Every structure is written in C-alpha cells, then in structure tokens.
Amino acid sequence: MPETTGERLTRLLALIAYLGENPGVPVAEVAAHFAVSERQVLADVNLLWVTGTPGYLPDDLIDFAADEYDRQVLTLTNPRGMDRPLRLGAHEALALLVALRPLEALSADGGIDDDVLRSTTAKLTAAAGEAARAAQAVDVHVSDASAALAPVRQALAAGRRLHLRYVSAADVVTERDVDPLELVWDGSRWYLRAWCHRVDGLRHFRLDRVLAAEVLATAAVHAPEATGRTTEPELDDDDLLAELELAPRARWLAERVPVVDHEDLPDGGMRVRLRVADPAWLANVVLGLGAEVRAVTPPELAAAVAQQAAEALAAYDDISSGS
Fold first, then answer.
1. Which residues pair with 260 in a beta bridge?
2. Where in the chain are the domains?
3. Which terms are listed as keywords in the entry (predicted)?
4. Is 60 helix (H, G, I), strand (E, B) or coil?
5. Which fold has domain 240-320?
C-alpha cells in the first residue's frame, strides 16, 4: 500500500534514534526492525545524508560511516542532535494528556495495555506540571462500541467473515457480510475497516453504529482492492458533499482523507470536495486546521463547524473562569 509522507517522516526520525543506540547494524537487520525492505532502508539513509541544520555545509548534515555503508552496515557518526531524547514543554504534554483521556475509557475493553497507559500518563503529568490539572477539566466523550469490539476482534484474529446489522448516519438499518481488515481509532471512535460484500467495496464502519455482529464460519477473503489505504467512513447515498478551500499549508489534507476531486488554486491553495457521513467528523477536521481552512460549503456544514467552535470556546471560558 502507498506510504504517506507522515509515515515516512516518523520512520526517519525513529531510524536516527535507533542507529544512535545501535551502531554498526547490518542493513538487513534494520529492515527487519522497521518492517521495510533493505532498498527502503538505504533510500532513507540517503535522504538523511543530505538532511541537517541551516547552513547545509558538510559539517551541518547528518552523517554516516561511508566505508561501512559500502559493506551494507549502518553507523551514525553525526546525528546533528536528532538523537537526543524528546523534551516536551508543558503545553505539549498537556495536549498529549488530553489525547490519552479517551484511551482510559477504552482500557476496559481489552484493547489498551493498562500498564503502558499508566506509565505514559505519569510521565506526561510530570512534564506538564501544574498544567496537568487542566487535562481533567476537559470533557471527553467516547462513543460506546464495547458490544461490537469483542466479535470484531475475534473475527480479525481468526480470519473470519462477519455478519453486521448496521445503522447508518441517516438511521437506515442494513445487514451485510464483511471481511474485516483492521480496527481504526480516530481519537474519538472505533471504526472497522472491512471489505463489504453488499456494495463490493472497501468501507469503514463505526462500531457504535453496529447493532449486532456475528462471526461466521466462512473465511475472510480480501480482494486486491482492499490493500489500498483509505480513511473514508461507510458511505450512503444521502451523505453530504462538502467543499473546503484550503490554504497552501493545508494541502496535505488531500493526502490524508479520500476526496471526490480537487482543484489547485493560483495562490498554491487547494479546493477539495469530499463526502461526509458525519458532520461532527468534518467539524473536528476543520477546527484542527484552524485558519488554514478559508471556506466551507454547503451552509449547513459551515454552521455545524461554527457551532462546535463556539461550544469549544465556551468550554475554555468556563475552565479559565474556574467554573
């Protein structure tokens, strides 16, 4: 499946830290560690080799031992400070603490390692200092998907087909057989990514909309088209068609979510059209981008975004006033 820019950047940063702690590692071992090909590892190293700090003279660049590279062995000789442990500021730690809040509610479902969650929360709380108290003041809502999680996980583990009774955003109940691919957590909801035999296509199903899930004896068979990555939810004929006008810095959105079409704008921005099954999802996307979204249509979606923004501001006012 195609790799996103964000995924490669994450691996590049992790590669620096890994080689900083493990000098003289064979390329094959690095490839196995990161679950990529040896060719990809070498491509990553070649990219890092021309990366560095402003000035970009030889001493400003990340460097590796060239003689060992020729023998398919990797040794990082100049990390340019990129191998230092991450040091979070109070506001960064606070943002991560708030992001962990939904996981606390999900740990009882068996999908979250309680020890890891507690350890991570303790470290972030220490980094946030006095600001950590504000994380508890943020009201976090998590949809109830507990009833569907167990059969979905069972089907994924056993490689079996699922029969779903599902209610759409338009309150239409359907029954369908699906071949599950993976569970996806978007920060507030669980989705099942699966090949739907009813529509003969790849879909995401919100687990809190699954009325019933039955593991079938039939083995799951994944169509070749199912190997592509997508984040689109289960689509219905009555889904809304949204149009966003993005500033140049927000063009990456077209790579992260499936769009119907897009248009490049003269100033480097982009106009994208996408189908929306859940207006709340679009509101979260737009609020996350802030001023980088210059226009939202149709009016009903723009109104939903404005309402959610007003509610968020009111909640922050309540926190700052101590109520």
1. none
2. 5-78, 90-137, 146-227, 240-320
3. Proteasome
4. helix
5. Alpha-Beta Plaits (3.30.70)
Residue whose C-alpha is closest to residue 178's, from 157, 158, 204, 154: 204
Who contacts 117 (Cβ-Cβ below 8 Å, separation ≥6)? 100, 103, 104, 107
pLDDT score, position 143:
56
Could you say which of 3.30.200, 1.25.10, 2.30.30, 1.10.760 is the CATH number of the domain covering 146-227? 2.30.30
Average pLDDT value for residue range 23-39: 93
Q: 113-162 pLDDT, tens per residue?
A: 667 778 888 888 887 777 777 766 666 655 556 678 889 989 999 999 99
Contact 248, 289 (CB under 8 A): no
* pLDDT per residue as tens digits for the range 252-262: 888 777 788 88
Residue 27 scores a pLDDT above 90: yes
pLDDT tens sequence across 202-213: 888 888 888 999
Partners of 185 in the β-ladder: 190
Distance separating alpha carbons of residues 64 and 74, to the nearest angstrom: 7
CATH topology of domain 5-78: Arc Repressor Mutant, subunit A (1.10.10)
The SS3 call for residue 201 is: strand
- Torsion, Cα of 14, 16, 19, 20 (10° steps): -110
Of the candidates 269, 265, 254, 204, the one whose C-alpha atom is nearest the C-alpha of residue 5 is 254
SS3 88: coil
The residue among 279, 106, 288, 308 whose CA lies nearest residue 189 is 106
